[in-house]
Design goal:
Helix content: over 70%
Organism: Poritiphilus flavus
Radius of gyration: 17 Å
Keywords: Membrane, Transmembrane, Transmembrane helix
Distance between the termini: 44 Å
InterPro entries: Put_HupE_UreJ
Structural class: mainly alpha
Protein name: HupE/UreJ family protein
Length: 194
């Protein structure tokens, strides 16, 4: 198998692995405030998350940055909790450009935190930091494809609830965000480092 294909598959499996549900849960809660009509904004958010993920992989692989794994295991559910809280407290004005810029920045920053979770393993796989381009490109394209598949599934379910079953958007957002907040709170308590 070509190295690019190996890392592409690895990135896809990393993000779409149900055992690593934290990334999936983050994507679900990130999309909870959007409707299918906002698909361009969703794609930009998901790409911002991938870019953040990439930045961390580069920094850790080149030994520029590192955070202990016990802190990362706490920070990841914290990103989910904060996104869920933001969804519930904020207004559902998905057309507001200031709010969208804030959402993009948040997805980028939280992507950096999520990238830390896999960065040490990724660093061990590449062995030689000078050969980082192909592994990083393949891995991140795999992550992006996996995320798009998850988002497509989530937005499809949202469409079913909002347009077919006629659930109100605010209720959908509260249900999804509340469930994600609860799950992330349990995970934060399980992974607390103090």
């Amino acid at each position: 198998m070509h190295p690019f294909e190996f890392y592409l598959k690895l990135g896809f499996e990393h993000i779409a692995n149900v055992a690593g549900y934290d990334h999936i849960l983050f994507l679900v809660v990130l999309c909870a405030v959007y409707r299918i009509e906002n698909w361009r904004k969703i794609l930009i958010l998901v790409t911002a998350f991938t870019i953040g993920h990439s930045v961390t992989l580069i920094l850790v692989s080149l030994d520029i940055f590192s955070i202990p794994s016990n802190i990362i295991k706490f920070l990841i559910p914290l990103t989910i909790f904060l996104t869920a809280l933001h969804n519930v407290i904020g207004k559902l004005e998905t057309g507001n450009s200031i709010k969208m810029k804030r959402n993009y920045a948040m997805a980028l920053f939280f992507g950096m935190i999520h990238g830390m979770d896999f960065s040490n393993y990724f660093k061990a796989l590449i062995m030689d930091p000078s050969d980082i381009v192909i592994p990083l490109l393949g891995f991140n394209i795999g992550i992006e494809l996996g995320q798009l598949l998850i988002v497509f599934f989530v937005v499809g379910i949202a469409f079913l609830f909002l347009h077919v079953l006629k659930v109100k958007h605010r209720e959908w957002n509260l249900f999804i965000s509340g469930a994600a907040a609860g799950m992330s709170l349990i995970s934060m308590l399980e992974n607390s480092f103090w």
